[in-house]
Amino acid sequence: MTEFLQQIINGLAFGSILALIALGYTMVYGILRFINFAHGDVFMLGAFAGFYLAPKIATLIPLPSILGGLAVLVASMVICAALGVLIERLAYRPLRRSPKLTVLITAIGVSLFLEYTGQFVFGAAPKKFPQILPVYPIAKIGGLSLNSNQVIVLGTTLLLLFVLRFIVLKTKMGMAMRAVSFNPEAAALMGVNTDIVISFTFALGSALAAAAGILWAVNYPAIDPLMGILPGLKAFVAAVLGGIGNLPGAALGGIIIGVIETLVSGYVSSTYRDAIAFAVLILILLIRPSGLLGKKEVEKV
Amino acid sequence: MKIRHGQFLLVAAAAIWLAGCKPASDSGATGGDTIKVGEFASLTGSEASFGQSSHKGTQLAIDEINAAGGVLGKKIQLITEDNQSQAGQSATVVRKLISSDGVVAMLGEVASSRSLEAAPICQQSKIPMISPSSTNPKVTQVGDYIFRVCFLDSFQGGKVLSGFAHDTLKAKNVAVLKDVKSDYSVGLAKFFTEGFTASGGKVIAEQNYSSGDKDFSAQLTAIKAANPDAVFVPGYYTEVGLIALQARQLGLNVPLFGGDGWESPVLVSIGGQALDGDYFSTHFSPDDTSTNVQNFVKHFKDKYGETPDSMAALGYDSALILADAIKRAGGTDGQKVRDAIAATKNFQGISGVITIDENRNASKPAVVVTIKDSKIKFVETIAP
After folding, report:
1. What is the residue-wise DSSP string for B3-19?
2. Which of B168, B174, B193, B203 is most open to solvent, judged by the fewest CB atoms within 10 Å of its CB?
3. Domain range for residue A44?
4. pLDDT tens profile A153-177
5. Is residue B20, in this structure, part of any structural domain at all?
6. Which of A2, A216, A262 faces B218 most closely, judged by CB atoms?
7. Is there a domain that residue B11 lies in?
8. What's the domain count of chain B?
9. Is A143 on the interface with B (CB under 8 A)?
10. Looking at residue B288, what is its pLDDT?
């Protein structure tokens, strides 16, 4: 029983990071109807931004500390938000009127560009991510182990989910985002500056990816330029599972994938982990083609 | 990722096919004033630390040979290609080294999976290949042109580590956590299990992971539930560092131990304090006081500013053995060089006395070390 509960905790901890990456994926898709394949690589850049910023921030605020960790997180989110805007401006905006497929292929190109430029600039060898947050063991009841980092990841995912929903549903920019998502031409005619809305969407999505990158690196402190490929793919699957374009769906999808993978690794064999996770995805999509929480008429962010 | 990989492989396959159509030019190799030797190594990627160390050792040996006048009056030119620690790349770069550069012999790799990719190509082209530190037995079974200068996993796992777990750790029940994508890890786990079971121990849990994984909490939780005396982790250093961290977080506080795949400064930089009290076996210790080891350590430090590890020592030895064989063969003909390498007897290398046996392997002692306060400490030497 203890073992099973521990596996559930492991699964929730892993799943909530996937959920955090999936939030960014699903938001950009919800607004622009466009799968940003470079999302996993912005996630990687977020972790590297933290890696290079941490020693600088440590001269102002001693690390590891809650405040210092937060400073690294926010600084990295700001840097990646700017990068996201830059990527959109250089790679996607010139293709605004091109077929969707062209943009999709460009996104794959951007993804490969970031990965291999990363290998050139950062080096391909894995780097040790510094400890930026103090770790407290939270539960040691009956042999269960849970530490503060795992709780912080779950908490951050939920917090960002609510912040995102607030931005999308309650703010003026959010209203403009929803308008662009329904019909970009009509929104433009109504006086919405679509370029700014799309830039803002990319900034927000990239900041989310950076947050996920930092929290990933805090939990798994070996980072390399190709670290974004697999989590990015799994987060994409999570977003589809939850109903792509739906924010709570992405969070739910991430957690489901995380728990399934952990249980399969723990009780069956890690060799079949991905196969079983994808089989579940196919099953759910057969029954609910628009994903767990994706409904045809329901508001899409 | 799958799609992208597939496309890449297709292009790579086409490129290889085109390269294969070109007639192999071996005329340049013997005719010029240099002897071209190929090296393929993981200079970047997840096992970059292995490739870099091994390459530095190899380069140092070649430089020293050339400074002493070269071989048969010619300088040796080392042509090195990087396989980025990726599957599929070794085959590509080795084909390039043979068909386009026209090398007369091949040195490489550390990881057995990648040596196994290159070995059939060298065998087919009758280019002698010496692996400095691939320990999986299958590597030299590929054919009679494939050699190694290190011990085998049947010895490392079946004798050194199983004996160490039984006699020194006094462990009765051991759990195994292996990398199913690595020939090295799977082989070492198999030999360890055989040896340990034969000596009366029990493997009570066996869990798998795949190279590149970052989360091992599921496997470690299952291992903890089985309550082992020690955990055998025959993997490579990047994953082992994370495994040690996560094991301690989950309250799994028994010693972890593994093979020569652990030896890298990256291991301790990732794992830190979590690795204290863990053990691994390897080929060489820079603390050895014999003069030729101390000379090697000094020259290596002068050139690179760091202490050499086992991979550097084996890289160095592989180049020395090749040069010695070319000298004895009196030329660079593939068949003659092969025969000369096969006839290597009692060659005094840095990593021990090397005699190539009839299966083209070297039989040498192993060293067991422990990690304490992020420093490597010598424990014992186990003879074959």
Report:
1. HHHHHHHHHHHHHHHHH
2. B168
3. 2-14+36-227
4. 889 889 998 999 999 899 999 999 9
5. no
6. A262
7. no
8. 2
9. yes
10. 77
